[in-house]
Amino acid sequence: MSSLAGLAPLEAVLFDVDGTLGDSDPLHYYALREMLQKIGFNGGVPITEEFFFEKFSGKHSVDTALVAFPGDLEQGLKFVEDKEAMFRRLAAEQLKPMKGLDKVRTWVENHGLKRAAVTNAPRVNAELMISKLGLSDFFDALIIGDECERGKPHPDPYLKALEVLKASKDHAFVFEDSFSGITAGVAAGMPVIGLATRNPEHLLMEAKPAFLIKDYEDPKLWEALEDLDKADADK
């Protein structure tokens, strides 16, 4: 039996947004690379994807600001704001759903589960992406890291989601795609299924996910959900 079977009866599924619902990392990478070049970051040499995933992916805006402008948080936060505006322009035209998203959405709906989107993204970004992906009516709650006492990698956003949904950590699991996000979900006491679509698998495994999948069509995911259904039927 899989690591999800013990969650029966399942109450809730929690989703990160960036890189988990929509394939947004290439758009974030493009926006960040262009804007960092403009300010002469790294001597004007474009950042690599590896550097992006290590330093920026899934991180809180304050962390991003201090990488771009060490020691100057105010200027760094202005940079982040401008970068996010560029990302939104790109996302409004180019954001695509993660492969198999409709399939997992249907599974969640058919099981009548509670669901929340939990993200470190600014609210305006998250609402744009959720709307663009046709998920505005899907989620019961949207939890923003900046609106919690602490964002990911701390557990606070996931704990707040459970509280809002009135769901137990013992009967819920998380979909995440970043080291920071997986760390947060695990710290909140839930199994986390990691999407290794963009982030390096070895990095994600360090955060101790229940298991990794390539996307929502990965047979490993559907075997685990089948085990969960069987465990639920046996109760």
From TrEMBL:
Which domain of life does the UniProt lineage start with? Answer: Eukaryota
Q: GO MF terms on file?
A: catalytic activity; metal ion binding
The answer to whether the entry has keyword Metal-binding is yes
The answer on whether this UniProt entry bears the keyword Magnesium reads yes
Family matches, as Pfam families: HAD_2
Write the record's keywords in alphabetical order, separated by commas. Answer: Magnesium, Metal-binding
Could you tell me which Gene3D superfamilies the record lists for this protein?
HAD superfamily/HAD-like, Putative phosphatase, domain 2
Q: Which SUPFAM superfamilies match?
A: HAD-like
Which cofactors is this protein said to need?
Mg(2+)
Its protein name is Haloacid dehalogenase-like hydrolase domain-containing protein Sgpp
